[in-house]
């Protein structure tokens, strides 16, 4: 595999084959130019080289027609067990969200919060995520927060899943992973002490309301401490808006003064916010969200944690809607266990002869990802 120094790549260069980050994850397909913005982002983020089996070219060289990957049984990659696991992931996500919504209602209305019960729940959550995260990431993409829905619980659930995935990549021991999950689930709990029309408002906030929002980390810290949550969990509620460069709040901490859990959850929350719909904005696709974090403008986030996010979910995250070089639309559903450099996609509207959903394996010069698609492009 050839390596190219990023800062030496000319603007809008095409590569004849896919390019990769750290020899594992796709950065561009042959149909995608290596833009000046991408060169600057990767160089700024201290990636020195990209890797490819192809060569640099001043123009796109074209792509061959896609071919279906056929497994030993001749039926392609789709298996009924995958459908079962996806359904179970849907049920898991729905149950987890329902649990958190009820927990937040009790905490808000009755001032009830059981640290031991939350711990037991997160133990189950962490075990499930470690086993079936690829199906869960598809569910997260397929279940955008609904309009008018209280997104506090949704944000907490999604951030918890992403945080545990990052923590797993960083090889945190199991007890730390559980503690991280608890912290991620409870990091915004201070918002429950504010009027709902403040943190759910779709209008511009008044100066007084803006000032009130800035108090939620302190309110969350005090609340969790009163319910005897572990100190590392309480600190995350206090620190999750702190930033590496000292630009955050409430204490303007920087660098090593911020706890590891807070660094992880800051990145997970930012990615979740970028890639999820909010009352005041549309969601960005996972690929664009990744690039936003890769920019790390002002060095706001811990670069080791950002790298862990990118390398655990990849530049083209599972669940991402994509346009394929065949002209078809699809969704990234898995990595190929034989060759994780080329993700497996579900091709919309196509089925195997026995009626199962068709899965196709991307491969150089066979089937590649042209670009991400948004939900509107999928529906049309």
Structural class per helix/strand content?
Answer: alpha+beta
Please report the distance between the alpha carbons of the first and last residues.
Answer: 39 Å
The value of Rg in angstroms is 22 Å
Helix content: 40-55%
Query: Would you tell me which CATH topology of the largest domain applies?
Result: Hypothetical protein af1432
Q: Assess the beta-strand content as a share of residues.
A: 5-15%
CATH class of the largest domain: Mainly Alpha
Total beta strand runs = 11
SSE string, helices as H and strands as E: EEEEHEEHHHHHHHHHHHEEEEEH
Q: Provide the CATH superfamily of the largest domain.
A: Hypothetical protein af1432
| Morphology | globular
Overall pLDDT score = 80
Structure notes:
The protein has about 375 residues and is of the alpha+beta class. The protein folds into three domains: about 1-55, no CATH class; about 85-315, Hypothetical protein af1432, CATH 1.10.3210; about 320-380. Helix content is about 45%, strand content about 15%. The chain is built from 13 helices and eleven strands. A five-stranded antiparallel β-sheet has the order 10-9-8-7-11, sandwiched between helices. It has a four-stranded antiparallel β-sheet with strand order 1-5-3-4, with no helix packed on it. Helix 3 (about 115-140) packs across helix 5 and helix 5 crosses helix 9. It starts with a strand and ends with a helix.
């Amino acid at each position: 595999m050839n390596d190219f120094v990023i800062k030496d790549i000319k603007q809008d260069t095409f590569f004849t084959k896919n390019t990769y980050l750290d020899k594992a994850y796709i950065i561009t397909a042959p149909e995608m130019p290596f833009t000046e913005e991408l060169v600057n982002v990767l160089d700024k983020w201290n990636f020195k080289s990209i890797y490819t089996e192809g060569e640099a070219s001043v123009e796109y060289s074209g792509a061959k027609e896609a071919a279906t990957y056929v497994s030993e049984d001749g039926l392609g990659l789709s298996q009924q067990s995958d459908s079962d696991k996806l359904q179970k992931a849907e049920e898991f996500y729905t149950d987890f969200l329902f649990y958190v919504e009820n927990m937040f209602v009790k905490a808000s209305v009755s001032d009830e919060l059981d640290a031991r019960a939350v711990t037991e729940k997160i133990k189950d959550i962490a075990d499930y995520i470690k086993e079936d995260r690829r199906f869960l990431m598809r569910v997260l993409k397929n279940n955008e927060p609904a309009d008018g829905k209280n997104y506090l619980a949704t944000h907490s659930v999604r951030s918890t899943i992403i945080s545990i995935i990052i923590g797993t990549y960083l090889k945190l021991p199991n007890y730390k992973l559980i503690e991280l999950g608890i912290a991620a689930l409870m990091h915004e709990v201070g918002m429950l002490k504010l009027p709902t029309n403040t943190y759910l408002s779709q209008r511009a906030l008044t100066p007084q309301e803006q000032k009130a929002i800035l108090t939620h980390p302190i309110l969350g810290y005090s609340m969790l401490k009163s319910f005897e949550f572990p100190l590392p969990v309480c600190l995350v509620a206090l620190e999750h808006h702190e930033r590496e460069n000292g630009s955050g709040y409430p204490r303007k901490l920087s660098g090593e003064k911020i706890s590891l859990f807070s660094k992880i959850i800051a990145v997970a929350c930012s990615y979740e916010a970028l890639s999820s719909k909010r009352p005041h904005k549309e969601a960005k696709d996972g690929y664009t969200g990744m690039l936003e974090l890769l920019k790390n403008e002002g060095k706001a986030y811990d670069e080791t944690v950002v790298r862990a996010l990118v390398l655990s979910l990849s530049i083209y995250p599972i669940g991402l809607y994509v346009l394929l070089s065949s002209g078809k639309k699809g969704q990234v559903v898995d990595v190929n266990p034989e060759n994780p450099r080329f993700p497996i996609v579900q091709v919309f509207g196509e089925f195997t002869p026995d009626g199962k959903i068709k899965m196709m394996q991307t491969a150089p010069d066979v089937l590649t990802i042209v670009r991400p698609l948004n939900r509107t492009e999928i529906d049309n």
